[in-house]
Structures are given as C-alpha cells and as structure tokens.
Amino acid sequence: MGILSSFKTRKMTRILKEKLSLDLSGKEPSAYYYVDGKPVLRVHITNVHGSAPLSVGAANELKNSLGLDEVGLSRLYRCPMKGKDFENHIRDMGWV
Amino acid sequence: MEVLGLRGTETEKEISPATLKAFLASGLMPSLTAKRRGLSGKVLPSGYERWSVWPEAIGEREALRGFRFVDELSEVRRQVDDLDSQVKSLVSELQQCKKGISTILNEFKERPVIKQTELFEIDETLEVIRPIPVVIKEYSNEVIAAFPEIGAFGAGLCEAEAIINLKKEIRKIFFELEGVSDNKLGKLPLSWKRVLLKVVRKIGNSQ
Questions:
Q1: What is the mean pLDDT of chain B?
Q2: Which residues of chain A have a CB within 8 Å of the CB of B110?
Q3: What is the pTM of this model?
Q4: Most CB atoms within 10 A, among A73, B54, B88, B179?
Q5: A39 contacts B110? CB cut-off 8 A
Q6: Reported confidence tier of residue B84, pLDDT bands at 50, 70, 90
Q7: Chain B interface includes A58 (CB < 8 A)
Q8: Domain shared by B127 and B191, yes or no
Q9: B137 and chain A: CB distance < 8 Å anywhere?
C-alpha cells in the first residue's frame, strides 16, 4: 500500500499536537499553526469512518494543508522531522 | 534381389543353398570370407549395405542406431533444458508484472476521480455572493469536497455528506478569520479571509 494509507488517526493527531503545538481536540479537530505569533496554516483532521487508519483522502488534504509531500508527511509522522524542522520548512516555503 | 527377402536381419535364415550358390557364382565369396575372418575394418565391398546379413554387421548397425539415438536424446535434452530456462525466465517476468500491476492498483486506489461543482448556498448565517468553486475527489471508500483556495475540505461517505461538511468548514473558517485584523494573520490565512469576503457575506450570527 502507499504512504498515505499507512497513517493512524490517533498517532497523527498526537504527533501534530506535540511537534506543532496544535490544539487539536474534538471529533473533527482543527487548529492554526502559529509562527512568530501569527497563524500561518490551518490543520484539519477528519475521518469519515472514525476508524484507526487515517483515510487516504484525509491524509492527502492534511499533506496539502501542511505544505508537505507524501515523504515529508511520513517523516513528520515517523519522527525524523522535528517541530523546528517543520517550522524551517514553512519558512522556506514563504508561508510566514 | 529384394524378392529373395534378404534385406532384413530376420530373413537371413531364409537364404537357401541355391541362393548362396548364386552369390558365390556372382563373386561375392571373397567379401564373405573377409567378414568371417574379422576384417570388417577393411574397405567393404560394393553391395555390402544391400547384403549385410552377418551378425557383426548387424551389431554395428544397431550400435550406430544406438549412438544416433543417444545423440538425438542429447539434442532433445538440450532443447528441454533451453525450454526450461525460458519458462523460468517467463515465470520471473510474470512475477515482476504481477508486482507491477499490484503497485499500479494500489496507486489507483489512492488516486481519486476528480470533478468540479459549485456551491450556491452555505447556511442561514452566510450568503453566497459568487458561486464557490468546489473540487470533488471520489476515493474508493470516501468522498472529499474541497475549496482549495482557502484550504477547506469536508469528507463524507458520499458527495452530499462531503459537501455538507465542507459548508460547515467554510462557515467555521469565515467566523475564525472575520474578527481578526489583517496584520495579525499570516500570509495564507489573510489570503483565505480575502477570498471568503469575496464569495460570502455575513447575514446572521455565528451562533
């Protein structure tokens, strides 16, 4: 299976909370990611099935909202990419 | 002479004394005696192939046939080995094809069918000023409705559910950004706010 179908909803939510300091809570959590005190992107996690694996469609939208490609999202999920690395990525993208 | 039945190995005992006599008369005797003395390595007289009815000659012929048979068997074996290696190669290629097809199928599962539509209504709090362009992405087991310009999307098991959830998201983002001054927003949220103000107008309370 592809990269996008390999994520677990709960773990992804936890990773985003920890690494990006996002306030994700509730059934359909969404939150802004702040850099230099300003919101620079919005993260929304949804899962139509409510099941453990994050759906491919939701993972794809999450990837887009974070400005990452599949490998980047996977690196964020599987730990090599730290919060600071992500911030640098966002700065490099010119989103700040 | 074929009439006499002298060509095959089984017919040699049918040679009658009269026939033998005729052979001797026609000058075949020297070659006969030469054969019997074990001089088969010498040059054979003419007509040997036709009249070779002696045990030693029969043995040689069978040995030759045997050698030929062994040669043919070796050739068949070589061909079978060639076929075997070709079949192994084909099986290997088929396995690679199978893996490739499996990979392609998995990729297809992750690639949605995409179509576009427009939203003309959000809810009682927001009036749509201009039709909102929406991208519908149909995956194998879910549908995503997205308004890419503001990074909003809604998911559902069907298109209708996805669109309802997208409307909720548009409404949510609008009221999240509406009250925030522009200089407190990052580049993307500021852009989203501007887009939203162009396509929807507040007509009710967010509550």
A1: 80
A2: 2, 4-5, 56, 60
A3: 0.66
A4: A73
A5: no
A6: very high
A7: yes
A8: yes
A9: yes
